[in-house]
Write a structure and sequence with these properties.
alpha/beta; single chain; 5 strands; 9 helices; five-stranded parallel beta sheet; globular
C-alpha cells in the first residue's frame, strides 16, 4: 500500500496480503461460478471497474451501465456485491460507505459518491415497484440520469454540477424502465432464477 494517497486509504480497503496471479485468477473464476451466467457478468463488471481508466487512456469508449433485473429475494444484490467487492470488501455491504447506495437516495448523495469512486464498481441498488407513484417516478428518473451519464461519459448537465462517473456503474432492479432509449444504453442481465445460496455463502466467506 506504499505510495497510495492518504485520502484514498481512508475510503478504500487495500489488501496487503500477497497473492499470486494464479491464485487471483482462480478466486475470480470461483466467484464467476456462483450462478452462471449471472455471476460471470458480475465478475466482468468488477474487472471493467478496475480497468476503467485504462480503457479511457486506450481511447476506447467506456461501457455503459450493467443492469441486473430480477424479482425480490433472488439474491441479485448479494451476488453483485460478492463479485465486485474488490475494494471496500470489509464494509461494502454498509450503505453508508462508498460503493453502494439505494436508488431512492438523494440525487446529490448519489452523484457525490459516484464522483468519488475511481476505478472500481459502484452499485445503485433496488429499483423497486413502489406503491407511491411520485416515488416511483423519482426513482426511475434517477436511474435514467445515471444510465445516460454513464453511457455518455459526461457530467450531469447543470450550472453547478461538476460530478462525473469515473467507475463502472452496476444497477439492480425488480423491473425494466419503459424507455427503449435508456435500455439501449445499458447491458441488461435478467435473472430467471435465484442465485445459488450455498455457493454465494462460500464466496462471501472468501472475498476477492
Amino acid at each position: 500500500t506504499q505510495g497510495i494517497l492518504p485520502e484514498l486509504k481512508n475510503k478504500y480497503h487495500f489488501q496487503t496480503t500477497e497473492m499470486s496471479e494464479q491464485e487471483a485468477a482462480e478466486a475470480a473464476l470461483f466467484h464467476a461460478a456462483i450462478s452462471p451466467p449471472y455471476s460471470t457478468v458480475a465478475v466482468a463488471s468488477g474487472l471493467l471497474g478496475i480497468l476503467h481508466q485504462i480503457v479511457i487512456d486506450a481511447g476506447i469508449r467506456p461501457p455503459g451501465a450493467i443492469n441486473f433485473v430480477g424479482e425480490t429475494q433472488t439474491r441479485k444484490t448479494s451476488m453483485v456485491l460478492a463479485c465486485c467487492a474488490m475494494y471496500n470488501r470489509e464494509n461494502i455491504a454498509n450503505p453508508n460507505n462508498i460503493g453502494i447506495s439505494r436508488v431512492n437516495s438523494s440525487n446529490y448523495k448519489l452523484e457525490e459518491e459516484i464522483d468519488e469512486c475511481r476505478d472500481t464498481t459502484y452499485i445503485v441498488d433496488d429499483l423497486f415497484r413502489s406503491s407511491d407513484p411520485k416515488e416511483r417516478r423519482e426513482n426511475e428518473q434517477r436511474v435514467r440520469n445515471i444510465i445516460r451519464n454513464c453511457a455518455d461519459n459526461s457530467s450531469r448537465q447543470t450550472a453547478r454540477s461538476q460530478f462525473k462517473i469515473n467507475c463502472q456503474i452496476t444497477l439492480t432492479s425488480e423491473y425494466l424502465l419503459d424507455s427503449a432509449t435508456d435500455l439501449g444504453r445499458c447491458l441488461i442481465v435478467k435473472l430467471n432464477e435465484s442465485i445459488d445460496p450455498q455457493k454465494l455463502s462460500q464466496c462471501q466467506q472468501q472475498p476477492l
